[in-house]
Amino acid sequence: MKELNDNLKKQLNEVSEENRKMEIQAKRVQARLDNLQRKFEFMTIQRLKGNSHVAHEMKSLKQEKVPVSKTYKVPLNAQVYELLTVFMDWISVHHLSKLKSEESGMDGEKPLPKFASQRNDIQEKCVKLLPVMTEQLQWMPFVNAKLHEPFVKFIYWSLRQLDAGTQHSTMTSTLRRLGEDILKGVVTKGIQDNSLEHSIENKPKTAAFFKSSSLPLRFLSTLIVLKTVTQADYLAQAFDSLCLDLKTEEGKTLFLKYQAVPVIVNHLRISSKGLLSNVIDSLLQMTVESESLQPFLEACSNTLFFRTCSVLLRTPKLDLQVLEKLSIILQKLSKIK
C-alpha cells in the first residue's frame, strides 16, 4: 500500500508539473495571439492610409469617435502660420534639439552652473509653451498640411527638453491631452473668415498626426505618444507603428535624427511588462545591418542604457524571448568599433 501510495504521489506531482507547464505555454500563446491581432489591425490601417477616404475608413475600423470641437473662426492670413512654423523649425533644429545637458546627465556628470541655469530657463519656457501648443492643435485642420511637421517637431523637442527636469510632473493633464490629440487626430468644424471674398466654410476639417501617411510626421507623432500617454493600448499602437516604420531605412534615419534611444529606454522596465517585447522589438530593428547600425550602437553606449539593462536582467522570471532579444542587442554593443 505504501509503495502504491508513493507511486500515486509521484504521478500526481508529474501531472501537476505538466499542468503548470501547459498553463504557462497557454498564456504565452494567448499573448502572442493578442500581439498578432494588434499587428493585423494596425497593418490594415496602414494599407488604408493611401486612400482618399482614410479618415472615414479608419474611424469605422478603430470604432473611435474623435470629438468635434466647437466652431473656430480662422484668420485669412496664412502667411502668418508659415512664418511661425519657419521660426519653430529654426528654434527646434538649432536650439531645442541640443540635448547636451541630458547626455551629460545620463553619464552622471553634473552640468556647469552656467549651463544648468540656461537649461532651467529653457525648461521654464517649454513648460509655458506646451499648454499653448496643445491648444493650437485644434487649429491645425485649417492650416496647410505641410506646416504640420515643423509644428509637431517643435512640440517634440520641447518635450525632450523637459527630460532632465521635474517640471513636467505638474503638466500631467496637458501631456495626456496632447498625447491623445496627436494619437487620434483633430476634427474641427469651423468658419473660415475670408474678408476679400466673404466666403464661409462650414465643413468639418481633419488633421492627422499619428495616422498621417507622411512618414516624418507620423514618426514624430509616434515619439510624442510614447512620451506623453500611459494607457497600455495606446502605447502598444505606438510601438507597433514604430516597429513597422523602422523596417525602412528612412525610419532608421529618423530614429537617429530625433535621438529616440532615451524615449524607448524609458519603457524598458519591468513595470511595462506587457510592452517589454514591443520595446525590445523596436530596438532590435535598429540592430539590422545598415548604415544606421553604428550610430545607433554609439547612441546606446551610455550609463542610462546599461543601467536600465542591468536592472532588467536582474529581474526574476524574465520572459525567455525578451532575454534572448536583449542579449542580441548587448552582443552587438560588445562589438562596437
From TrEMBL:
- Keyword Transcription attributed: no
What are the Coiled-coil domain coordinates in residue numbering? 88-337
State the InterPro entries in the record: CCDC138 (IPR038798), CCDC138_C (IPR048750), CCDC138_CC (IPR048751)
Q: Where is the Coiled-coil-domain-containing protein 138 coiled-coil domain?
A: 1-47
Question: Could you confirm whether the keyword Coiled coil appears in this record?
Answer: yes
- What's in the keyword line of the UniProt record? Coiled coil
Coiled-coil spans in chain: 1-46
Domain of life of the source:
Eukaryota
What PANTHER family does the record tag this protein with?
COILED-COIL DOMAIN-CONTAINING PROTEIN 138 (PTHR34523:SF1)
Q: What is this protein called?
A: Coiled-coil domain containing 138
Q: Which organism is it from?
A: Rousettus aegyptiacus
